[in-house]
């Protein structure tokens, strides 16, 4: 898939207490990472394009896509509605019909997802998706068309079926897992158990495409761009923006090379950018529709949606559910539709929740059971201790487990919020080091109505450059406390040596 920092994989959900409750961020999510799909040496880097003879959307594809669609909407924060979404749908349908999978624009359902991660994907049946965050990173309509065309190309080339065949149709993935892919974000040193425990929809992949398949999808996307009259070089520029965004996020987290940007099966960003430019032709021409694109995406929510909770540095606040907590020093957080993931050099954790129909003791034991890898003895805590955190009834358990890099401690720390609702952290670290999470466990607290009301979303603001404006003066208006200039440059596809002209449209992020 054509993605930035981290993005997606479908996961199985196991009930905690009873049925999982979706409240924007919380519920425990457990996925099985297919080791068999870590690499695909069978595909040729010179695979032949199938754009000339794709298989039309079948009735079976339509039925399966229609069944998967509402599940995907739930997984990725729902669909954005309004004029911005209508515009994305129009562009997506126009580029998708170039594939030959369908004869009419109405054969394709194109959705703008309310997700703060850089992501796009497509599934058989004519369903195409792009997140608002990835859309905000783009700088013209041709880039949007290129991203969506790339994803449609995966479907046209039947890559999902080929990956499924390579995985020997592993039944644990289910229908969705066999057609979705992503880029790995995580610390491999934590071992296979850590991959098992911390595989959220927005963080860890269950299945990924091979290098050759990604390159073929790039090429198909370029072909569709040309057919639609767009400048095919847009595929290269959007890939470059994704690579720069990845690098910036890694820099801000202080993780540099520890967060794989494109995973082992993806070509490195630089070579992919060069290859796309070569395929398009350095002197290619076509429509960009830059100003139209920027004016049509103006006002998009940027980053976290308050309805799903807000990450601000080491602090997480959920104004709707009225609670907040802080990650330990040296850790960073990513808010997904399924859970908040907390990552650092020395461990990983997730915050999620579910229905509490019994005691916290039974809730915690069920959470440990959900973490147990398939076919292995159930993970159980040595004991469960009661506690009180900022007036909230709580309990916790610790289990010593064997990871690929040695013994590790898994902790489940749960809170009874009343009304049959519980929340909990699941944390993993090297054996004997679980104390690094104590400050986080103790930080969870309820917030007042006034505190909740003070939480405001960031949004994309498209502004016109005025005489006297500079890159630095515009960057100073970015609604961030750090890396204002770096964020502004990446967001607009600019460099420190770029020049601005009066009347030019640029993007800034405001509250």
Automatic annotation (TrEMBL):
PROSITE patterns reported for this sequence: LYSM (PS51782)
Gene3D superfamilies recorded: LysM domain, Metalloproteases ('zincins'), catalytic domain
Coiled-coil residues: none
GO MF, one example: metal ion binding
UniProt superkingdom: Bacteria
Record bears the keyword tRNA processing: no
Start and end residues of each LysM domain: 461-508
Cofactor dependence: Zn(2+)
CC annotations in GO: membrane
Any one GO biological process: proteolysis involved in protein catabolic process
Signal sequence coordinates: none
A Pfam cross-reference name: LysM
InterPro entries xref list: LysM, LysM_dom_sf, Mito/Outer_Membr_Metalloprot, Peptidase_M48
UniProt keyword annotation of Hydrolase present: yes
Record keywords: Hydrolase, Metal-binding, Metalloprotease, Protease, Zinc
Identification of the protein by name: Metalloprotease
